[in-house]
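Fatty acid-binding protein, muscle
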Amino acid sequence: MSFSGKYELVNSENFDAYLKAAGVGFAKRAVASTMKPTIEISENGGVYTIKTFSVLKNTEITFTPGTEFDEETADGRMAKSTVTIDGNKLTHVQNLGDETSTTVREFNGDKMTAVFTCKDAVATREYKKLHYCCSNILAPNNKSAKMSITGRYEMISSENFGDYLKAVGVGMIQRNLAEKAKPTVEITENGGRYTLKTLTALKNTEINFALGEEFDEETADGRKARSTVTQEGNKLVHVQKIGGDQSTTTREFLATEMKATFTAKGVTATRVYKRL
């Protein structure tokens, strides 16, 4: 049976109690319980990779079934882990010191059910398999329609952008110039690789990426970042890591517009663009 594919969370029960039993702190539990992760599973020559994408953090494990490996959990703890295959199930056992937790992922058609167990706590999360390709995604309000990410978008409104720029460390002069600019964003795709250009009278920027792969990025004000862009339904989630700081831009694509939400250090800004 093939386990490969992308799966989006659609339902979650008792996950906070499981995280508490596994030793995850209150603040991280509160954030994790609100996330809607996408899981990507791939296989190459008997070696499997499971990637978990969320706005908070992306994680990745690579393993050969039945062979123990080192794993860093989403909250930074180190585990000795083993994944085995039993029919249509992947059983993932993590040993963290004196504690053991088990995740059983069961695959049935377009559905994956994950059952998490630690001590006496049991949680269940259900995922649906995603069926989209390249630059097309399912429109959220019409299951039979498809919407393209690619295109040109012109900004029509902006809220709190100056505060966001201040939070990420942009200087006052550059903040003032950036707030006055009215950018056009152009997105193209070729063979699974995306190009996102931001065009203004002040400065043009460009990034090239494949979904889920980390890349080097230079910000508009010249700082160097390690970035990753992932897809969650009708959204592109762009995470930038600069030193010890992180900022996230979530671009949501609707029929006639793109809405970008920028977040860093508790500050949130929103910009709306019309599709040209």
